[in-house]
Amino acid sequence: MSNPIFVGIDVGGTFTDFVVWRNGRLDIHKVPTTPTDQSIAMMQGLRDLGLLTNHETEANSALAIVHGMTVATNALLERRGAKTALLTTAGFADALVIGRQNRPQLYRLHQTRPAPLVADAHRLEIAERLDPQGNVIIPLAEADIPAMAETLRTAGIESLAIVFLFSFRNPTHEQRAAELLHAALPDLPLSLSSEILPEYREYERTATTVINAYVQPLVARYLSRLEQTLAAQLPGKRAHVHIMQSNGGVIGLEQAAAQAARVVLSGPAGGAVGAFAIAEQALNAPFPRLPNSLSAHNIVNLITFDMGGTSTDVALCPGHIPTTAESTITDLPLRLPVIDIHTVGAGGGSIAFVDAGGALQVGPHSAGAVPGPACYGRGGGLPTVTDANLVLGRLDAAGFLGGHGQVTLDESAARRVLQRLGDQLHLSVEEAALGVVRVANATMERALRRVSVERGYDPRDFVLLPFGGAGPLHACDLAASLGITRILCPLHPGVLSAYGMLMADVTSEASQALLADAAALSDDPTPLTAAIAALNARTQSVLTRETVADLVVTAALDLRYRGQSYELTVPLPLPVTSAAVTDAVTTFHATHAQRYGYAMLQEPVEAVTVRLRTAAPGVKPSLPTATAPTTTDASAAIVGVKPVWFAPSEPMPTACYARSQLQFGHRLAGPALIFQYDATVVIAPGWSAAVDGMQNLWIWSTIETKQ
Prior knowledge:
Blueprint: E1 5-11, E2 15-22, E3 25-32, H1 38-48, H2 54-57, E4 62-68, H3 71-77, E5 84-89, H4 95-98, E6 123-126, E7 129-130, E8 136-138, H5 145-154, E9 159-163, H6 172-184, E10 190-192, H7 193-196, H8 202-233, E11 238-244, E12 250-252, H9 253-258, H10 266-283, E13 301-307, E14 312-318, E15 323-324, E16 327-329, E17 332-334, E18 338-339, E19 342-344, E20 350-354, E21 360-366, H11 385-391, H12 411-425, H13 429-451, E22 463-467, H14 471-482, E23 486-489, H15 496-503, E24 506-517, H16 518-523, H17 526-543, E25 552-561, E26 568-572, H18 578-596, E27 605-616, E28 638-644, E29 652-658, E30 667-669, E31 672-675, E32 680-683, E33 687-691, E34 697-701, H19 702-705
Parallel strand pairs: 1-4, 4-11, 5-6, 5-9, 9-10, 13-22, 29-31
Antiparallel strand pairs: 1-2, 2-3, 7-8, 11-12, 13-14, 14-19, 15-18, 16-17, 20-21, 23-34, 24-27, 25-26, 25-27, 28-29, 30-33, 31-32, 33-34
C-alpha cells in the first residue's frame, strides 16, 4: 500500500466521527449518524473529506480504514438479530434459560428476565456426550442430522449455535455436526463454542456462542455491503478495512464477520485506546508550568470519561488499559476479552422526565440521532441533557460544531421543553436545566466510583480524561465531586474514539481452559507450554492474512483460590517456565488483596484458563508538538463574553475562547467556555487551565492548590 491515507471512523448514537491521517496531517470531521444504515453516514463523511473523489485517490493507492460500529450492539439492545437456533447435548437445551438464577434487583419481589435470544422451539438437542476430560461416552448421533437440518430449514432459521458439553476439552463432536449440517445447509451460518469460547462454564459458553450466532448474519451483511460500496465508490482502488474489537485491537473483515461477538463494544474500546495514547504522548510533550506540583507525573494513571449522545463509558487505567473476560450485554454474559469499561445510560441525548413519584429522572432512554434533542430542530419534543446545557449557556448555538452549520441549535425550542419540565417541578427554566445536569452528573459519578472506589482505588490519585462530544462539558463538576484535581482534555475530544482506532494494534486473541493446579504447573509447565503453542498457532494464522509486521505475543492466566467461583486475570511471563508460573501466582495474590482487601497465601491456587494475545503494531499517528511556549496571556483567543448558569442564583459573566487560537503556554481562569468543532469545554468557577505542547488542555482546581 503506497502512501495510504489512514481513516478512523467511529459510529456513535448521534454523530459518526472521522479522523484522517495523511501526509503527517490530522483532519477531523463529524456527520449525523444514519441509524437505518450506518454505512450511509460513513460514505457521506468520506465524501465530505474528499476521499471518494478522483483527485484524492489518483495519488494514493488505497484507504486504510479502521471502523468502529454499533451494528452488533444495536441488534442486541433492540433484540432484532437473526432468527437463531441452538443445537446442544441432549438434556441441556434449557441451560440458556436457566442461567445462573441471579437476581438483578435484590429486593424486588417480582422480577421478569429478558427473553432468551433463542426461542423454546428452536433449542434443539442431539444425543452425544463427553466426560469432563473430553473422552467420548456417547458417540454423536450422526443419523439424526438430516432430520435436524430439515427442521432448521422449515423454521426459517438464519443462524445456528452449536454448543456441546465439554467441547472445550474435545471439539470433534461439534466439528463433525457442523460438517454434516453445512453439507445439508451450505448457506446457514454456524457458530461453534469450541471456536468462539473454548472455556468451561456451560451457561457462559452457551450464551456467548448464541450472542455470536445472533448478531453474525447482520454484521456479515453490513460488512459485505460496506466492502461493495467502497469498491464501487473507488473504482480501480482498494480500501483496506479493519474493524475495531471490544478488546482494543482491530481485526480484518473476514474474522469480524465470522466472530461478530468480538465487535459488540468496539466504539467504547476505541475511546479507551485513544485516551491512553494521548496520556502516553503527553508524557513526552513540553508541559506547562502548573502550581502546587501538578505535573505530568503519573498521568498514565487516568480515568477515562467518554460522554456521547446516548451513553457514558468510563474506565480506570492504572498505568495500563484494563481488560476483562467477564462482561455483560443486555443482561447476557459475554465471555470474550473486552476493555474493562462501565457504561451508564447518560449522554447528551438522554431524556429528562418526572417519574410517578414526582422525582426528576434523566435517561437511560435517549433521543438518539433521529429526532435528537429538541434544540436540533428535527421534531424532538422531549428535554435532554443537551437542551439543558444550551439553556444554561454552556453550549452556544452559534459555536456548535465550530459554527460549520451542520447542526443549528434552536435555543427557543430547548427553552420550551425545559419550561414544560420546570412547570411539573415548580421550577424556573434555568432551575430545571440545572436539575437535569445535576441528575445526569449523579449517574455518571456513580459510574466513576464503580470503576475506582469500589475496586480499591482512590480517584484523587488519578487524572480525569474527558472526551466524547459532551465529556468536556461535565468534567469539572464530576472531578470536583470525586476530589480529582487534574483534568487532561485532549485537542480533539469529540472524535477521540475514532483517533483511538488509528492507534490500535492489529490483534488476534485465543483462550483455552486448563483447570489445573498452579503448583503442579510450576513443577511441570509442559501442559501450559503445549496449550500456549496451540494458541500461538491459532492467533498467528489469523494475523498472517492481515500483516507481515513484527508480532508481539503476550500471555495471561485466569487464577483463583481453589473453591472460588470467580477468577482474576494476571500476566504470564513468556517463555513459560516454572519461575514464570510462580511469578503469575505471586501477582495473583497481590491483585486479589488490592481488589478484595485480603489474600490467602497458604491456599492452593488453580489455573482456570490460559489466554494469548498476538499483536502487530498499528499506525499510531502522533499530534504535532510545539517546542517553545508563547505568552501566558490567552486574551487574544477570546471571542466574546456571555452569561452562563453555574448556580440557581444568577448567571456569571463567562469568557468564551476559540480553541484554535489557544497556543502552548496560554493560561486562563474559570469560569470560561472553549469552543471548538468537535466539543465545548467548560472551565468551571474555581478551576484554571493551561495549554501544553501538544495543544492539550490541563485543567486544575484552584481551590485545591490554595490548601
